[in-house]
Specification:
Elements lengths: L4 H9 L14 H12 L11 E9 L2 E9 L7 E7 L13 H11 L2 E5 L11 H15 L1 H4 L1 E11 L1 H13 L9 E5 L10 H5 L7 H11 L24 E8 L3 H13 L4 E10 L10 H17 L2
Parallel strand pairs: 3-4, 3-5, 5-6, 6-7, 7-8
Antiparallel strand pairs: 1-2, 2-4
Helix pairs in contact: 3-10, 4-6
């Protein structure tokens, strides 16, 4: 099956120029700026009637910026999704994922709290994970103030954010104070190594081997004594985790680990659903204006989120 033709046209039009320096030679902030410029222009048709309010939430080392999305006509209390953006723990922010959060809130009828966790290399592992855990606990503690139903709170994220959501669900597993209702894992990065077939065989599009190597180097996780915390393996206890939706893309190096994690959840007795979009690529959730297929994929995902939090 071929890549969606609209996506292929975008890939052809945005190929890096000849002579582009390798990522290792570019300042992280320059890469972030380029990513922000591209992605904020890729979903200009997201719902404008979703209320978006900037606020501060707890992080592991002081408050962090966040954005609360409330769908139009929402009652005082709705299910809530704590969302972590993708970008390899190095790039991405509230604005790059603004359109997706608006679409999820509007379609699923839930409030979405998007968290701006600290980024590497300025803040190496485990800063991103510690911030995300603190922000999730904050969402429970302040559920009444932000309109979350504390019995119907989910964590979610894409790529690196999918890793954060899965790790937080694992670390809160069994804690009666913070009982999550659902996991939304969008092409999650869970392997942290090149041991899957899709990571070995696929070098892009969009998520290249060079980019993954750069992300891991910036994160500084390889030599960290607590590195096992962020990679799924036998040391993770899956029994008792909340139900999960795992979404993968056909042309994505991360697809095999997402599929494997779904199977592992099912084998542990966790209700898990896998959705695959075989013609799409990594990062497609924030490229809605590129193809009608992407909009339909987002809608199907939001419908599953709504059902999971019903």
């Amino acid at each position: 099956m071929a890549i969606d033709p609209h996506v292929q046209a975008m890939l052809d039009a945005t190929r890096p120029p000849e002579g582009m320096p390798p990522l290792d030679q570019l300042p992280a902030e320059m890469v972030r700026a380029g990513y922000r410029a591209q992605r904020t222009q890729s979903d200009l048709t997201a719902p404008k009637d979703v209320d978006a309010r900037d606020l501060r939430v707890a992080g592991a080392d002081g408050d962090r910026p966040a954005r609360l999305y409330t769908p139009p006509g929402a009652p005082a209390t709705t299910p809530g999704l704590v969302y972590f953006h993708g970008g390899g723990f190095v790039i991405g922010d509230l604005d790059t994922h603004d359109g997706l959060c608006r679409r999820l809130a509007a379609r699923a009828g839930v409030r979405v709290l998007s968290v701006d966790y600290r980024l590497a290399p300025e803040h190496p592992f485990p800063a991103s994970h510690d911030d995300s855990l603190a922000a999730t606990r904050w969402a429970f503690d302040y559920a009444a103030e932000i309109g979350f139903d504390p019995k119907r709170i989910a964590v979610g994220g894409d790529s690196a954010g999918g890793n954060l959501a899965a790790v937080i669900a694992h670390e809160l597993n069994g804690d009666p104070r913070y009982r999550l209702a659902f996991q939304l894992l969008l092409y999650p990065a869970l392997s942290m190594s090149a041991d899957t077939r899709s990571r070995q065989e696929l070098d892009g599009p969009l998520l290249t081997k060079e980019a993954m190597t750069w992300f891991e180097k910036c994160l500084g996780v390889v030599e960290h004594p607590d590195a096992a915390r962020m990679a799924y393996g036998p040391h993770w206890t899956l029994e008792g985790l909340p139900p999960a939706l795992v979404v993968t893309a056909g042309f994505d190096p991360l697809k095999d680990e997402g599929m494997a994690y779904t199977r592992a959840l099912e084998e542990a007795g966790v209700k898990a659903r896998h959705m695959d979009f075989p013609t799409l690529v990594h990062d497609f959730f924030i490229l809605a204006d590129v193809s009608p297929t992407i909009v339909e994929a987002i809608n199907q995902t939001a419908d599953a989120l709504k059902a999971g939090l019903a």
